[in-house]
Every structure is written in structure tokens, then in C-alpha cells.
Amino acid sequence: RTILVEVSETVSAERAAIYLHDRATDTLYAISAIGADPEALDPVAIDDATSVVARAFRTLHPGIAEDDDDGAPAERALRAGPMLAAPIVWTTRRGGEPLGAIVLSGRRHGQ
Known about the structure:
Elements: H1 2-10, E1 13-22, E2 27-34, E3 44-45, H2 52-59, E4 63-65, E5 83-92, E6 95-107
Antiparallel strand pairs: 1-2, 1-6, 2-3, 4-5, 5-6
């Protein structure tokens, strides 16, 4: 939770979550959240074409879901305006291994 708090405060996000990849189910599940209970957040299938968090994980590139983008139903509890998702990657000598993604949404007023 400390990493999530630091990142969300740095970018002034009211809502945030860290998702990790579950290889057994090929889903991303929330392990920590701000602005929502992580246990209440549904897992996101990594092949969900409507999910910004799944897309960031799959492509290994950050993505933004704009205000008018409904996005994945599993992400709606975290949405407060545009949503940014970025992959979390462990770098090894063989290359990057995707571990999950971080999601940030809801800029604080005046930011």
C-alpha cells in the first residue's frame, strides 16, 4: 500500500489500485486500492478488450481511458474521470516480465 499511496499522491489521484497477474486464471486481481475496497474489485481477464488495465498489461505500454470511454465493468468502481493504467514489469537479463499494472484516476481538485 505504501507504493500505491506514494504514486497516487505524486500524481494527485483520488483513486488507484495495483493489480497482479494470476497465471492460473489469466486474470489481474487487485491487491491494494485507494478509493475502493480491493476485495470488492472484480478480477479483470487479461484478454478483456474493454479494459485499460488489461491492455496496459498485454502491451507493456501505458494507456488512458478517457472520460467518455465506459471501459470494463470491473474497472468502474475506480473510475473518476479519465483513468491511467501502466504496466508493472520486472526486468531480468532475459527481458521484461510483466507482473501486473497500476491504475490511477480522479485528479484532486486544483491539481
